[in-house]
């Protein structure tokens, strides 16, 4: 049996709201760990990951979904300005983490800016997921999860395409979303209240 990822989901309150950087560091760590673990789970279920390139593409898809999920939760509780600041900080930190991990796994490539490429990818996926409903601004709809499943399916070999979507939608995502939700809500619990859902293209260019 695959063990769940242990992450911090209970946070002590502090005087004043937490900075965007504090939230970004904690949430980015949680998102990366659950996404990395999901890819590891696929390997343990005998899905063929094969190369680091495929593994990082799968992680990128999971991360993009979960960042957008955080945006929906932030929309439900935060002011527009606070929401944008927090999501930009989370996305920037995840871009740094992605770059660090790629360089560590395959080495540097002077011709590429992995962080900028990842931020651009997040913006594209933000636009994609903005088309789907997230009931109560928290739960992902079946079409949203199916879209994610299709993106993962496209990256897999022919032998793995048949069952991968069921694995993603029914097994991996419910646990991942539950973990991220607890962590993110705990970090935002002392912050002020919201209004307004802005443009999906809200991440900073590099």
Fold topology:
Layout: H1 20-44, H2 52-77, H3 80-106, H4 114-129, H5 142-155, H6 164-188
Report on this structure.
The protein is mainly α. It is 65% helix and 0% strand. It has helices spanning 20-44, 52-77, 80-106, 114-129, 142-155, 164-188. The protein is globular. The protein starts with 19 loop residues before the first helix and ends in an 18-residue tail after the last helix. The model is unreliable at 1-13 and 191-202 (pLDDT under 50).
Order of helices and strands: HHHHHH
Q: From the helix content, strand content and strand pairing, which structural class follows?
A: mainly alpha
Beta strands, count: 0
User: Main sheet, how many strands, which sense, barrel?
Assistant: none
Kindly, what is the distance between the CA atoms of the first and last residues, rounded to a whole number of angstroms? 41 Å
The helical percent reads: 55-70%
**What radius of gyration results from the CA coordinates?**
17 Å
Shape call: globular
Total helical elements: 6
Portion of residues in beta strands equals under 5%
Sequence stretches where pLDDT stays below 50 over 5 or more residues: 1-13, 191-202
Overall pLDDT level = 85
What kind of oligomer do you see? Answer: single chain
């Amino acid at each position: 049996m695959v063990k769940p990822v242990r992450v911090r989901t209970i946070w002590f309150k502090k005087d004043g709201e937490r900075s965007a950087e504090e939230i970004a560091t904690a949430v980015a760590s949680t998102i990366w760990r659950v996404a990395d673990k999901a890819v590891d789970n696929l390997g343990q279920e005998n899905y063929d990951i094969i190369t680091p390139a495929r593994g990082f593409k799968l992680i990128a898809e999971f991360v993009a979904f979960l960042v957008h999920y955080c945006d929906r939760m932030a929309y439900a509780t935060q002011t527009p300005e606070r929401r944008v600041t927090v999501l930009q900080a989370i996305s920037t930190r995840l871009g740094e983490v992605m770059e660090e991990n790629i360089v560590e796994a395959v080495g540097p490539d002077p011709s590429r800016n992995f962080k900028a490429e990842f931020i651009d990818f997040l913006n594209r996926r933000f636009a994609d997921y903005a088309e789907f409903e997230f009931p109560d601004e928290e739960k992902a709809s079946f079409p949203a999860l199916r879209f994610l499943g299709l993106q993962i399916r496209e990256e897999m070999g022919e032998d793995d395409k048949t069952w991968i979507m069921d694995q993603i939608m029914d097994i991996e995502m419910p646990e991942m979303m539950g973990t991220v939700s607890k962590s993110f809500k705990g970090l935002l619990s002392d912050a002020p209240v919201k209004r307004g859902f802005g443009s999906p293209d809200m991440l900073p260019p590099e």
